[in-house]
From TrEMBL:
GO biological process: lignin catabolic process
Cellular compartments annotated: Secreted, Extracellular space, Apoplast
Signal sequence extent: 1-23
Organism of derivation: Salvia miltiorrhiza (Chinese sage)
Database matches in PANTHER family: LACCASE-5, MULTI-COPPER OXIDASE
One Gene Ontology cellular component: apoplast
Main location: secreted
Keyword Glycoprotein annotated: yes
Protein name: Laccase
Residue span(s) of domain Plastocyanin-like: 32-146, 158-308, 413-546
InterPro entries: Cu-oxidase-like_N (IPR011707), Cu-oxidase_2nd (IPR001117), Cu-oxidase_C (IPR011706), Cu-oxidase_fam (IPR045087), Cu_oxidase_CS (IPR033138), Cu_oxidase_Cu_BS (IPR002355), Cupredoxin (IPR008972), CuRO_1_LCC (IPR034288)
Family: Belongs to the multicopper oxidase family.
Enzyme Commission number, as recorded: 1.10.3.2
Amino acid sequence: MEKKMSSLSALALLLLWMPLAMAKLHTHQFVVEATPVKRLCKTHNTITVNGMYPGPTLEVNNGDTLVVKVINRARYNVTIHWHGVRQMRSAWADGPEFVTQCPIRAGKSYTYRFTIQGQEGTLWWHAHSSWLRATVYGGLIIRPKQGDAYPFPKPHRETPLLLGEWWDANPIDVVREASRSGAAPNVSDAYTINGQPGDLYNCSAKHTLIVPINPGQTNLLRVVNSALNQELFFKVANHKLTVVAADASYVKPFSTSVLMLGPGQTTDVLITANQPPNRYHIAARAYASAQGAPFDNTTTTAILQYHNFSSPSAKPVAALMPAFNDTPTVTAFTRSLRSPRRVEVPTKIDHNLFFTVGLGLNNCPRGARARNCQGPNGTRFAASMNNVSFVLPSNFSLLQAHQQGLRGVFTTDFPARPPTQFDYTGNVSRSLWQPMRGTRLYKLKYGEAVQVVLQGTSIFTAENHPIHLHGYDFYIVAEGFGNFNPTRDTPKFNLVDPPMRNTASVPVGGWAVIRFVADNPGVWLMHCHLDVHITWGLAMAFLVDNGVGELQTLQPPPPDLPLC
Ligand SMILES: *[C@@H]1O[C@H](CO)[C@@H](O)[C@H](O)[C@H]1NC(C)=O
Ligand SMILES: *[C@@H]1O[C@H](CO)[C@@H](O)[C@H](O)[C@H]1NC(C)=O
Ligand SMILES: *[C@@H]1O[C@H](CO)[C@@H](O)[C@H](O)[C@H]1NC(C)=O
Ligand SMILES: *[C@@H]1O[C@H](CO)[C@@H](O)[C@H](O)[C@H]1NC(C)=O
Ligand SMILES: *[C@@H]1O[C@H](CO)[C@@H](O)[C@H](O)[C@H]1NC(C)=O
Ligand SMILES: *[C@@H]1O[C@H](CO)[C@@H](O)[C@H](O)[C@H]1NC(C)=O
Ligand SMILES: *[C@@H]1O[C@H](CO)[C@@H](O)[C@H](O)[C@H]1NC(C)=O
Ligand SMILES: *[C@@H]1O[C@H](CO)[C@@H](O)[C@H](O)[C@H]1NC(C)=O
Ligand SMILES: *[C@@H]1O[C@H](CO)[C@@H](O)[C@H](O)[C@H]1NC(C)=O
Ligand SMILES: [Cu+2]
């Protein structure tokens, strides 16, 4: 009897100890530095991490801890954001500049420390300072805990595919020029897959990624939209894709021939080599929902190459892409995303919020120089949520100001609903187009349940906005077109198996409804992931208070936290 007891408690001890023993610590060093990179026939001194474009893709298991020392040897301020990582109690490691930290100045360093908790699939990391993320980004692959399996047959091979955007200019010059002029920034010159534009561009035959596959086998493609300003369609010629995860949450598998990803979003798909052995284009090009706005209409390609394919000289089989404005295809895709099974969606809502998201125009003050007023009809472009165009502080980060109780850096009066009600998606009176500036946060108590209706506006132009929330995953319980109507639309909410994401594509001229529980203390930015729109102010932040006890309290700031 005694022997049995002790072996039982030994087993219990072992079980307690095992998960700790299996979680790993990954330490990395990221040196941010200028590196010559040649694309589209020209060499640029490009800002990279460790001389790589794109930067390194990190591979971890759920439960692991990352310690990444970022050394800034570039001539710009920089920060790194771990896109989609929940950062439970570790908001200091989230990364958006002037939100959770001041920038790492040239010559300085900062070490990001955080643990992956309960997330599996594909995320990514990117610079969160000016437009540096154009070239400073990489993948973050999170596999199940060691010993756990995928909820789908183990693929033979896994390939991360990071879709990017390339300017034949310094991207920082592009955004600086736009900030000065008030006009829309120049569009990019190419899209890329893992940094390669592909064989449809000049001088790029060598810059084409080959993705090998063996006949009959099934591979996992981890697709990330790392582009700056463009939502993208993604296809593989003649092949069906089975979607198994999005934004590092599994989904109910479904088959499709086309994906749409907004910047920030990820989609994991299985692909089976069931076609004649050949070379097939993997292609991405714009989903451009804003009417009349200029966009980069080029197509990036990689090549899915079967082992032993028959005719090496023949051109790859082309992918037939949807039309640039094919919104019905986007709607069909986003509405196919479901959680794998019934999930616990918050139903007792403490904060029922309604946020308009969209563009605007600032009239130029009298006496302003014409060169600073090159937006439509002598204005400057703006963007806002609930008519507040978000302004970052410059003397303290929001999180630091919150933690130290400093006044004068921000206010907590972000409006719960638009200050004026109007026909959001109709012909909006010109008198409503100019937003006000502000650093206004919305305060939540620990554990409160939040619903946000994200309502697109047609001010200047309607557009599909990829809205990203830091520090949280949320359920997308509904989306639709036109103005959200609570009486008509609330009964249609999916409270059974809605998808969980960190970035919601708010339909062009429409709305999306998200729900989450404020269980992570800190200051969390919510913004459009089209960088041109965040540059114009399409952002706000939630301030989430501490709860009770250490496990509901923000950790103390790390000693090397950069100050302003
Ligand atoms: C933007 O495009 C215009 C017109 O092609 C060009 O003159 C200008 O130099 C570009 N700006 C940057 C920063 O590349
Ligand atoms: C590619 O090169 C050709 C010939 O030099 C030129 O006419 C064309 O404009 C170039 N295309 C792009 C996209 O640069
Ligand atoms: C490729 O062809 C060779 C020779 O015909 C054969 O031995 C091999 O199994 C083939 N490989 C695949 C993956 O089909
Ligand atoms: C892209 O735009 C250019 C100029 O605006 C146009 O000449 C070209 O036909 C367009 N290409 C596609 C594929 O639509
Ligand atoms: C600019 O002015 C023209 C002429 O007055 C007008 O037709 C157009 O709608 C205006 N555009 C904007 C964006 O205000
Ligand atoms: C920070 O800057 C803002 C805006 O310039 C100013 O109002 C505020 O007083 C400053 N806060 C502190 C604590 O210095
Ligand atoms: C929008 O309203 C303005 C004035 O309120 C009117 O001049 C304009 O013609 C309308 N545009 C459309 C497309 O209905
Ligand atoms: C936004 O605020 C400005 C300044 O108060 C006002 O002129 C404008 O009409 C407002 N627009 C909306 C959509 O509320
Ligand atoms: C870099 O960040 C500091 C605050 O930490 C700021 O004062 C400075 O203006 C920034 N430099 C540039 C070039 O943005
Ligand atoms: Cu946007």
